[in-house]
Amino acid sequence: MAFEYPTQKAIEKLCKDLNLQKPDAYEQDWEYVNVDETRIAEFIDYYQSGCLDDETKFTVMIIIIGSLDDALCSGKFESAQWERVKSILIQEQDLHVNTIKYWSCEDEANLENCFYITPYIREVEKIKTILVNVSYLIEVEEDILTDSAKAETFQEVVFQKLSTHRKKKIDEKHTAKWVGDSFIVLDPEKMNCGMCNNCGGWTTDREKENPIEGLCNGTTNDGVLLCDECKRFNNQ
Ligand SMILES: [Zn+2]
């Protein structure tokens, strides 16, 4: 979920946890009053303590970026601190989307009219997201699928097993975050799918209507469905 402004709850929590200045009744820019270039490492440690909810993370990140901006201005900027912040922003881009937009000054071509931190924030925006689909097949007894209560329970068990780690580390730089799943009972009579005539693997005919995303591609020749791999082999 993306926030636009710090919430009262987050402000109160941060005042308490980090001993920040409490907001005046009419204060609009509480988060900017509390930027502090001498406490950046402490703020980042706090962010990464693992016990903050999203609205607190969102709010403390504004203070961190404001503090980094001050540090750039005063010559006390430490790139190791920025690297930590950058990897948080990349991994949790959806939470900080409005903050990133604000500091990146996207409509301003002349950097002299932007913040000191703007070129750094623009690096984060150059990172793109890919959606990876991995498909599994499970052979299931029919009675499970025809009983809606049983089917629902089974579906839950399957998702629990397959998405045990909602975040998976791919390598030092990349993390995959689980975002969704789908569950389809394959029906060759009603759907564009069937078993490959050669290897018996589930296949969809990509030249026909509504191919099923995630199944191996194949084609039908003279009424015989072959997966692409078997077809390639047959043609050799
Ligand atoms: Zn095949």
Task: Summarize the topology.
Blueprint: H1 8-18, H2 30-33, H3 40-47, H4 54-74, H5 79-91, H6 97-104, H7 118-125, H8 142-146, H9 148-162, E1 167-169, E2 175-177, E3 194-195, E4 202-205, E5 216-221, E6 224-227, H10 228-235
Parallel strand pairs: 4-5
Antiparallel strand pairs: 1-2, 3-4, 5-6
Helix pairs in contact: 1-4, 3-4, 5-7
Zinc ion (ZN) is lined by residues 196, 198-199, 201, 226-227, 229-230.
Note down, in words, how this protein is organized.
By secondary structure, the chain is of the alpha+beta class. The chain has a domain at 8-125. Helices cover 43% and strands 9% of the residues. It has ten helices and six strands, in the order αααααααααββββββα. Strands 3-4-5-6 form a four-stranded mixed beta sheet. Helix 1 (8-18) crosses helix 4 (54-74). The longest helix has 21 residues, at 54-74. 19% of the residues are buried. Bound molecules: zinc ion (ZN).
Biggest sheet architecture: 4 strands, mixed
Strand content is 5-15%
Note the gap between the termini: 52 Å
Radius of gyration: 26 Å
Q: What is the share of helical residues?
A: 40-55%
Based on Cα principal axes, name the global outline.
Answer: elongated
How many helix segments?
A: 10
Nearest-integer average pLDDT: 89
What is bound: which ligands? zinc ion
**SSE-based structural type:** alpha+beta
- Report the count of strand segments: 6
In the predicted model, the low-confidence regions spanning at least 5 consecutive residues are none
Q: How would you write the strand order of the largest sheet?
A: 3-4-5-6
Sketch the topology as an H/E string, one letter per element.
HHHHHHHHHEEEEEEH
